Amino acid sequence: MKCESYETFFVNFSNKAKLDIIMALRNGPLNVKTIAKKINEEQSAVSHNLKKLTDCHVLDVKKVGKERIYSLNKNTVIPILKLVGKHVMKNCPGSCCKK
User: Fold this and answer.
1) Fewest CB within 10 A of the end CB: N or C in the chain?
2) What is the 3-state secondary structure (H, E, C) of the chain?
3) Tens digits of residue pLDDT in 48-97
4) Which long-range contacts (CB under 8 A, 24 or more apart) does 41-48 make?
5) How far apart are CA 91 and CA 20, in angstroms?
């Protein structure tokens, strides 16, 4: 399944579990076990969300032996996160963006 709409794309960033995965991968590629540990989630739930994120090409996946290594899409997602970071630093001082 490919990402066919803006809504489908942005759901990946508005869903807390998926966003936690994205943020865990900001510092580099990780396997599912490490991601699950970093975000304190069950590995099966993480695997389910990783599938959705890779289907929409938010993440890239590389198979190394029996292990899958996940990373952020360097052509689109990493630049988006950098842009959002600039926006937050400039326009969301303190906790103005938190509910």
Assistant:
1) C
2) CCCCCHHHHHHHHHCHHHHHHHHHCCCCCEEHHHHHHHHCCCHHHHHHHHHHHHHCCCEEEEEECCEEEEEECCCCHHHHHHHHHHHHHHHCCCCCCCC
3) 999 999 999 999 999 999 999 999 999 999 999 999 999 989 988 776 55
4) 41/17, 45/17, 46/17, 46/21
5) 22
Nearest Cα residue to 70 out of 37, 24, 38: 24
- Give the Cα separation of 77 and 3 in Å (integer): 14
In sequence order, the β-bridge partners of residue 63 are 68
Residues 6+ apart with CB under 8 A from 12: 18, 19, 22, 52, 53, 56, 58
Number of residues in the chain: 99
